[in-house]
Amino acid sequence: MTFGILLGAFAIGVMISGVLFFLGQKSQSGAAPGLVNGELAACPSSPNCVVSEAHADDKHRVDPLPLTAWEKIPDAVAAAGGEIAQNDDTYVAATFASKTFGFVDDVEFRKGEEAVHVRSASRVGYSDRGVNRARVDALRAALAE
Question: What's the confidence (pLDDT) of residue 26?
Fold first, then answer.
């Protein structure tokens, strides 16, 4: 009976790993949503996204970055392990991939008149266990140096 329980637990572990691997692979296709009517996209209802635009609700809101951070963003993203996907005068899109299953998160920056707005969101799944909020906090700290 113990062997059967161990075998069942192993099978469940393999299935969960397979699902996570599939979702990680799925997240590698696609791109950041980009600007919507001149602003960063709103977050979905799931808790795996944060944004600093005025339309953000309390659950998804983060503070914008200071305007002085704009020029430092590419270097801060690279130092944090991200890759720049797009970089122009008023918009930067970057991706960050998790080490284990390769889950891709999009981090976007929009240069406003008084601040730099930021959005960090997972491409797949529901919860991110606070990873996107923590990433924005870490980038904020790095950009303040």
Answer: 47
Query: Which position has the higher pLDDT, 8 or 143?
Result: 143
Alpha-carbon gap, residue 107 to 97, rounded angstroms: 11
**Number of structural domains, the chain?**
1
Q: For residue 31, what pLDDT is reported?
A: 80
Whose tokens are 């990433």? That residue is 135
Q: Residue 29 sits in a domain of what CATH number?
A: 3.30.310
Beta carbons of 86 and 93 less than 8 angstroms apart: yes
In the predicted model, is pLDDT for residue 16 greater than 60? no
Query: Rounded to whole angstroms, how far apart are CA atoms 125 and 28?
Result: 13
Encoded tokens for 7: 């075998």
> Which domain, by its residues, includes 136?
2-144
